[in-house]
């Protein structure tokens, strides 16, 4: 641990060494003919212009004199730069190297994709995949390893569920992990078993740690980060809140930034095991592109794998209430350490009982001025007890939510929760009514990295693949302005950056996303078809999609 911390410190010091930095670009740009949504009540008149990486009034920037990039985009629409308030960059990059199981409509299709991946690898090497969801299969039951083990006998196989809270191991992988009928796991995990008590291969939450896959090489780590970096820019994201980053990943990211290969803004949530980095407190690279100010930990599991912790048993599993991954005392201790270090704590909590536990732990923190200035967060905040909506507002806690979780989960969520609880789920409009800041993200690679899908889900409460014409939750529909605000102003607030990011105004950092159509007035389905023309960060074009 100490060695990893020192490695990060060396990289960070190098990033601050001005003698090794390239001369900064001008950050000057002029965009003509566009409609500008500032994200505020103040309109923008004339061309959109920036110099030294910050917005300037129209007419202030002269391309020949200031070396500005110029674009004529009549009819295009500019929004403040879109920020995903909850994603996993390394996981997104991993999808390119691993077996992609997203969208598989049956267990047989999952097996076929694993077989296809195995044929590209030497015998005995690991087959890793992610993205299966039994709720998309006809039988909707958790799988057993038998068919997978028969189809891929010569490789250990480890296939992680779409939410990252369960995995399926074949016989070879279980043998390497030493998992047998007699294996046991603590209260935060589950080894699922068949009627005879034998492991089915499905491991939930903490039990997943029993399977240890080979670590990435340094080059693989960098390649995956860069792949995710580029994917984010292509869909119009200027920034990401990266949830659960360890010291090695952070060092790689900072190293890429020092080399001039990293443009995407990253708000880093550290893994809670990085105690030395947490104790160090907030810091950032000299240009503010990478900011370390938060910590991400897990209170419970996920609803799809029945790991979310509920007050009453699951409607579709008798007597089962989920898996608490961190007890209240441990959450309170971590919250106190974060408060004393000036770090924001972002606790994953999905079930109503888990959300209550986190709020209780936050309320117990002793810090001058209370916890509201620390902007502690609950990541996902999916199922909330009736009395707890107001507690978010009272404590100043931010529910960081993902609109596409609603549209992915609603086809089966009512079966898990029952009608009363599902009415208290995915309820971002209820938070809005209380004046609570609600940052929006995607939780990629659990969901698509594309923020257009999140905007569409928030506005329609329908998925991009369909759903009821009126939406799954018409009572939670947001206006276009509110939906965009979740990915801009509210996401910036959630990373303490509202003075610099999230809206378009003179003096703010020139981060913006340009689309080929007006997101405020286009037809609802056109939200999904809007083309990203430019992704601009600090006045520099990070992605140009005009001819793509």
Oligomer: single chain
Global Rg:
23 Å
Report low-confidence residues grouped into runs of 5 or more. 1-24
Structural class: alpha/beta
Strand content: 15-25%
What profile does the largest beta sheet have? 8 strands, mixed
Number of strands: 23
Tally of alpha and pi helices? 18
Helix coverage percent: 25-40%
Mean pLDDT: 94
Kindly report how far apart the N and C termini lie: 44 Å
Q: Give the overall form.
A: globular
Describe this protein with a few key phrases.
8-stranded mixed sheet; 23 strands; 20% strand; alpha/beta; 548 residues; globular
Secondary-structure map:
Blueprint: H1 2-16, E1 29-32, E2 35-36, E3 48-51, E4 54-56, H2 63-66, E5 69-72, E6 77-80, E7 82-87, H3 89-94, E8 99-100, H4 107-118, E9 127-132, H5 146-151, E10 157-161, E11 166-169, H6 171-177, E12 189-193, E13 199-205, H7 218-234, E14 237-245, H8 247-258, E15 265-270, H9 275-280, E16 283-284, E17 290-298, H10 328-341, E18 344-349, H11 352-363, E19 377-380, H12 389-395, E20 398-400, H13 403-422, H14 428-433, H15 451-460, H16 480-486, H17 489-493, E21 512-515, H18 526-529, E22 532-537, E23 540-544
Parallel strand pairs: 1-5, 2-6, 7-14, 8-9, 9-10, 14-15, 15-17, 17-18, 18-19, 19-20
Antiparallel strand pairs: 1-3, 3-4, 6-21, 10-11, 11-13, 12-13, 16-17, 21-22, 22-23
Helix pairs in contact: 1-8, 7-8, 10-11, 13-15
């Amino acid at each position: 641990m100490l060695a990893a911390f020192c490695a990060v410190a060396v990289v960070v010091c190098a990033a601050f060494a001005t003698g090794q930095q390239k001369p900064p670009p001008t950050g000057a740009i002029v965009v003509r003919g566009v409609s500008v949504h500032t994200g505020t009540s103040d309109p923008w008149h004339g061309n959109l212009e920036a110099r030294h990486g910050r917005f300037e009034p129209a007419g202030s920037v002269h391309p020949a004199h200031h070396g500005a990039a110029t674009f004529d985009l009549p009819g295009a629409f500019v929004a403040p730069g879109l920020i995903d308030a909850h994603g996993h960059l390394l996981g997104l990059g991993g999808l390119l190297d691993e077996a992609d199981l997203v969208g598989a409509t049956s267990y047989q299709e999952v097996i076929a994709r694993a077989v296809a991946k195995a044929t590209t690898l030497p015998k005995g090497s690991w087959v890793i995949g992610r993205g299966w969801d039994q709720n998309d299969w006809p039988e909707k039951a958790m799988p057993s390893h038998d068919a997978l083990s028969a189809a891929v006998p010569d490789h250990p196989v480890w296939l992680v569920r779409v939410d990252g809270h369960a995995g399926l191991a074949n016989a070879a992988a279980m043998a390497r992990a030493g998992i047998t009928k007699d294996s046991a796991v603590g209260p935060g995990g589950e080894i699922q078993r068949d009627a005879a008590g034998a492991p089915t291969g499905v491991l939930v939450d903490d039990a997943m740690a029993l399977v240890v896959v080979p670590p990435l090489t340094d080059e693989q780590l960098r390649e995956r980060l860069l792949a995710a970096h580029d994917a984010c820019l292509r869909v119009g994201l200027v920034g990401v809140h990266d949830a659960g980053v360890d010291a090695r990943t952070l060092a790689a990211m900072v190293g890429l930034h020092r080399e001039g290969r990293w443009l995407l803004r990253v708000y880093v949530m550290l893994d809670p095991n990085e105690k030395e980095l947490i104790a160090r407190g907030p810091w950032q690279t000299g240009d503010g592109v990478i900011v370390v100010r938060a910590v991400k930990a897990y209170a419970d599991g996920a609803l799809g794998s029945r790991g979310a912790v509920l007050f009453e048993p699951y409607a579709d599993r008798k007597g089962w209430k989920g898996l608490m991954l961190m007890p209240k005392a441990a959450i309170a201790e971590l919250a106190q350490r974060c408060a004393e270090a000036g770090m924001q704590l972002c606790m994953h909590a999905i079930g109503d009982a888990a959300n209550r536990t986190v709020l209780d732990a936050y309320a117990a923190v002793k810090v001058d001025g209370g916890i509201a200035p620390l902007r502690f967060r609950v990541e996902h905040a999916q199922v909330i007890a009736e009395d707890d909506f107001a507690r978010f507002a009272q404590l100043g806690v931010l529910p960081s939510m993902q609109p596409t979780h609603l549209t992915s989960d609603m086809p089966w969520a009512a079966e898990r929760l029952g009608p009363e609880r599902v009415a208290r789920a995915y309820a971002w409009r209820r938070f809005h009514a209380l004046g609570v800041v609600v940052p929006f993200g995607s939780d990629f690679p659990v969901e698509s990295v594309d923020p257009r899908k999140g905007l569409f889900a928030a506005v329609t409460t329908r998925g991009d693949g369909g759903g009821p014409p009126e939406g799954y939750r018409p009572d939670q529909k947001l206006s276009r302005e509110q939906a965009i605000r979740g990915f801009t102003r509210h996401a910036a607030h959630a990373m303490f950056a509202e003075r610099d990011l999230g809206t378009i105004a003179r003096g703010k950092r020139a981060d913006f996303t340009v689309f080929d159509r007006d997101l405020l007035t286009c037809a609802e389905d056109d939200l999904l078809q809007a083309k990203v023309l430019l992704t601009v960060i600090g006045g520099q074009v990070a992605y140009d999609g005009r001819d793509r």
